[in-house]
Amino acid sequence: MMKYKAWIMIIFISMGVVLAGCGNVSDANNLTKAPQAESIKQEKIKKVLDEILPPGSEYVVPKKSEQKKSIFIEDINKDGKQETVVLYIDMRENRQVHILTLKESNETWNKVSDIATGDNYLDHFNLEDINNDGKKEVIIGTSISDSKSKKHLDIYEWEEKGLVKRVNLSYEDVDIADYNDDGKLDILIINGEIKKSQYAKMFSYEKGKLQLRSIVKLDSDAYHENTVSGKLADGRKALYIDSDLGAHSMLTEIVAYDKGKLIKVGKENDPILFKAYPLYSKDINNDGIIEVAGMYIPKGFEEAAMAEIPFIHEYVDYRIDGTKQTIQERYVDGGQHFYITIPVKWDHKLTIKRIDKGVRLISNTDKKILFEVKWTKKDSYISSKEKLGETKDTIFYSDVKEDVTFLYNNFHLLKDDF
Fold first, then answer.
1. Which of 258, 272, 273 is nearest to 312 (CA)?
2. Which of 73, 90, 129, 168 shows the smallest number of beta carbons within 10 Å?
3. What are the b/e assignments for 340-377, b being 16+ CB within 10 Å?
4. Mean local confidence (pLDDT), 307-330
């Protein structure tokens, strides 16, 4: 009887597997149908491009756009038929960036226009409906080179004869997003001249023209190194600008829109926004909120020379009113390429002690060792030690027992993060 029941169970399980398998095949077909169709269309377009593009041409990808591709297939003018925008470099024309457009008709693709930008470097590209008329505009940013040379932002609209340029302006950086929460996309540009005046400007796009909505001054001495588009802790849209200032310092300026105008979030003397060494803003915990990186001097190093201070890094979330919250602290060892995340319990409560081929994190109050990292060549490592990580030549380990408030897995190699 038990054997009979067992066989019944096996049969039902087998049927379940078969039925589940059939369901998965169906789902897989549904999931792959669209990508396959898109892939077939891409291949068809590429065959057309092989005949149209000049010999030796190269596809080019915009450096700062989210979509890292050269061929964009969409119904741009909402006429029910698809258009294609192709970004390429013509090698015969001193490597000029071109915008080629194709239109689908009777299942064939025909060339509509081919525009030479006059520039060699493709910085930015967007297909966005920025005036809420249901049609998408072509937004492209180019420059002569990828150096600090001025860039040119062009906005095109699609007409029967192809793309028609409506806007041309110089810029240093650009972000396209809804900054004032009115349901329409805004264009935020950074521009100006170092040592004279620098600013962020917010525009709306109406009737083929940019309308200036607000402007805020930026530090005139700042050399903008890194810009990140993201959100503040309260969900408000913001642009984070990390800039070199002086010999080695860095300033972060946060631009947002509040009460009818652009503002800079935070106070002028905020020690997180102004830091001793370069640290870039980024979303360290993948929650969609950008953290600003700062640093502070641990206890015992207040009088030390700058080069000798083992700064502790601090990643902070800001709100539109300038209030802030520390999300994470880290001790970073750039020379050995690792970092240690510090539990919230120990934020601003520990210091650093360097030892021979190692480092310890120590409580400020009772001098207890909270965490220890040592490193050695692989051929010198003793397997009984607690291994924390390894690289090609080095093993990181600890001689100190794991603390319940500060676990071994707080150790990270920098390559794990970048």
1. 272
2. 168
3. bbbbeebeeebbbbeeeebbbbbbeeeeebbbbbbbbe
4. 97
Q: Is the dihedral of CA 47, 51, 52, 56 positive or negative?
A: positive
Q: How many domains does the chain contain in total?
A: 2
User: Final residue of a domain: which of 115, 148, 171?
Assistant: 171
Helices and strands in the chain: count of H runs, count of E runs: 2, 28
Query: Given a cut of 70, is residue 148 above it in pLDDT?
Result: no
The verdict on residue 411 lying in a domain is yes
Per-residue pLDDT reduced to its tens digit, 390-411: 999 999 999 999 999 999 999 9
d(CA 153, CA 125): 9
Contacts of 408 (CB under 8 A, 6+ apart): 386, 388, 398, 402
Q: Which residue has the tokens 């420059």?
A: 143
293's tokens: 């990186």
User: The tokens 């969609």 sit on which residue?
Assistant: 288
The angle at the Cα of 211, spanning 205 to 217, to the nearest 5 degrees, equals 120
Rounded Cα–Cα distance for residues 193 and 171 (Å): 11
pLDDT for the residue numbered 22: 38
**211 domain residue, yes or no:** no
Q: Is residue 219 part of a domain?
A: no
**Contact partners, residue 361, CB within 8 Å, separation at least 6:** 331, 340, 342, 346, 350, 351, 352, 353, 369, 370, 371, 372, 406
CATH number for the domain harbouring residue 112: 2.40.128
302 versus 44: the higher-pLDDT residue is: 302
**Pairing of the two strands 369-377 and 358-363:** antiparallel
Q: Which domain holds residue 131?
A: 40-171
Task: Give the CB-side neighbour count of residue 225, counting CA atoms within 13 A.
Answer: 16
3-class DSSP assignment, residue 202: strand
Pick left, alpha or beta for residue 144 (phi over 0 → left; psi -120 to 50 → alpha; otherwise beta): alpha
Within a domain: 386: yes
Sequence letter at residue 349: K
Instruction: Tell me what the pLDDT averaged over the chain comes to.
Output: 89
The pLDDT-based confidence of 1 (bands split at 50, 70, 90) is very low
pLDDT for 24 equals 39
Q: Looking at the whole model, is its pTM more than 0.90?
A: no
Beta strand extents in 137-236 (DSSP E only): 137-143, 151-159, 162-171, 173-177, 186-193, 197-206, 209-218, 223-231
Percent of the chain at pLDDT > 70 equals 90
> What pLDDT shows up at residue 38?
65
- Phi and psi torsions of 215, nearest 5°: -145, 145
